[in-house]
Amino acid sequence: MFNNKVDFNMKRVDKFIVNFLMVTLNIFAIMGMLAVFTVPLLMALPEYLKNLAHISIKHTSFLEINLILILSIIVELKNIVGRIKKDKVFLYENADGFVKIGIYVFLFGVVRQINYIVNGHYGTLFRFDNDGNLDIDVFIFIIVACVSFVISEVLRKAVKIKNENDLTI
Fold first, then answer.
1. N or C end of the chain: which has fewer CB within 10 A?
2. What are the domain boundaries of the chain?
3. What is the pTM for the complete model shown?
4. Phi, psi of 128 (to 5 degrees)
5. pLDDT tens digit string along 108-133?
6. Which residues in 5-23 are b (16+ Cβ under 10 Å) and which e?
């Protein structure tokens, strides 16, 4: 009897987490879409306002690329969480989704580094902030992308094992 109660509570917690993720990702997706469509409107501002806000075509171009990459990550996460919500965890589509997320995160890091170089913030991979700490932004993106690729491969192996188990009686 105790195991059934614990199992029931875990299912409720799991359902809450998945629903919370879906709501959060939907909010982020709406915010991302609004941002993607409104950023180009910044270039339609009068010249004196663009100068006042330091808005240039370079800044808005990189901002738009970053927003599209972030929105792509959110959409892939929504797809994965949606399949998990339907109890379809061990699918190759989920593994492919993690590969896409890894690619998008890696591209985001590359675009961010190029943005820093083009817009004159700094042009080195290793730099120190005002407190003397090493700032390694681009490497964080590479690490997150690698973690996503590893999750994808683990999920592929799990799908393969599940498919083999489904074939056995």
1. C
2. 2-167
3. 0.81
4. -115, 140
5. 988 988 887 787 765 455 566 666 66
6. eeeeeeeeeeeeebeebbe
